[in-house]
Give the backbone structure.
Amino acid sequence: MTSPAKFKKDKEIIAEYDTQVKEIRAQLTEQMKCLDQQCELRVQLLQDLQDFFRKKAEIEMDYSRNLEKLAERFLAKTCSTKDQQFKKDQNVLSPVNCWNLLLNQVKRESRDHTTLSDIYLNNIIPRFVQVSEDSGRLFKKSKEVGQQLQDDLMKVLNELYSVMKTYHMYNADSISAQSKLKEAEKQEEKQIGKSVKQEDRQTPRSPDSTANVRIEEKHVRRSSVKKIEKMKEKRQAKYTENKLKAIKARNEYLLALEATNASVFKYYIHDLSDLIDQCCDLGYHASLNRALRTFLSAELNLEQSKHEGLDAIENAVENLDATSDKQRLMEMYNNVFCPPMKFEFQPHMGDMASQLCAQQPVQSELLQRCQQLQSRLSTLKIENEEVKKTMEATLQTIQDIVTVEDFDVSDCFQYSNSMESVKSTVSETFMSKPSIAKRRANQQETEQFYFTVRECYGF
């Protein structure tokens, strides 16, 4: 004989649900901490880059001044009176010509290093400052979006808890009503059997007295049977009512369960990835790429012989990839970003029906609800497609702003044949104040519109 199946009690089911929700809540908290940590590391990295290039600019300027002093010393010597004969012969003497070219090259190197220092101070460092400001601003907005997404997810989980509790309550009422109905049926059977036995045991009496007694006993039995039948009818109606409520509650629970699992999947698989891609990392890698390419352009134009040392840096710049960084981050913190287990249907007190019940009288209600949901989904699909097109166009505009190829500073190293000092243009088209104000105003206005759309539509 098989042992009866053991069913989980309400407390056990709720305890398991609470445990799973607590684990998800802990994950959400750790996700925000992880993103905070990445933001702090970025700020520190950008600050280190600024300090590095500021110190390097000082070194380049000191080197330029020393080269200029060296060149002026020997140029002054060649211009002295005792060197006049030496100067007359310089057109025919190749060593003198080489000497003059060498001094001119020193002057050129001095100007190049002044230009390099100027580029570091007035081009590259401001770029890092801008990247740092943009990253902080975007992370703040991204954190707000992420927090809203997490709040929405927790709201869905809380709604599932409420629906599950309602299902448990109505199912318990249905079981209780069924038990009372069976008890009434037993009482009816018992009363009917008792009446039959009493009629069989009746002893003969005088005709008049026997008739009176039988009439009286029949009246009593009929009264008892009617009371039991009336009680049975009430309990039958109560059971039918509670059973219907239980079926509806179970259907609501199953629908909410499916919606919750879909929401959890969407958050972990799509929302988190989009949050890092389109919010936290928006323009960061591209801007850092541009700043470092400016450095590369300056160094490569200063001295082509430095290719061997610069190749390693260029290779690192070429490998700046937001997608790869995101994947690495998520792999490093796999326990934080991995999706949780799906919520499973928890049958209550032997209720093993794990699919929607479409029997009467809930069939018409389900069909009506299905039609309403299909209509709503069609409307949302059209709205989402329009919003998606708008967001894609806005995102492309932002990408165009932050990926403009303005890192070539080769013009800064073009000189005339004269020996006069040449002032660096320092990427005037990018770093001039009107250009900066216009670019940043357009960028921030576009960003504000982009985040407003995300917040309004929950993308």
Remarks:
- The chain is about 80% helix and 0% strand.
